[in-house]
Design a protein that fits this description.
Keywords: Ribonucleoprotein, Ribosomal protein. By secondary structure, this protein is an alpha+beta fold. The protein is built from four helices and three strands; from the N terminus they run αβαβαβα. Strands 2-1-3 form a three-stranded antiparallel beta sheet. The mean pLDDT is 76.
């Protein structure tokens, strides 16, 4: 499953005043215009997320670099973060006993 589908699978899309933008593809090898757009969005490294207002200017910038980024609404972003937190939550430690099991005296059964 690619990153786009993974992000979209959490919550249905709804309009949001804020957009969470995550850079999911590398910058090397892209056009200079795309690099400048990512720089204006303050996306410098892969898997970094920034929050921007949902304005026509920002949407136009995202249209230019849509193959490099994933766009999430606030609900989608919170659902993804909650899912990651649940995955990283502390679990009870698994106890492994490496000692041999105690031998039962089955050969000396009382009659």
């Amino acid at each position: 499953m690619n990153a786009f589908k993974a992000y979209k699978a959490c919550v249905p899309i709804a309009w949001s005043p804020n957009l969470y933008i995550t850079l999911v593809r590398g910058i090397p090898g892209t056009r200079r215009l795309h690099r400048r757009t990512l720089e204006a969005l303050r996306l410098g490294k892969c898997n970094r997320t920034v929050m921007r207002w949902n304005t026509p200017t920002v949407r136009g910038m995202l249209q230019q670099v849509k193959r490099l980024v994933v766009i999430e609404t606030e609900e989608m972003y919170k659902a993804r973060k909650q899912k990651e937190a649940n995955h990283r939550a502390l679990r009870t430690p698994m106890v492994v006993n490496h000692l041999p099991a105690p031998a039962s005296d089955s050969s000396q059964q009382p009659m």
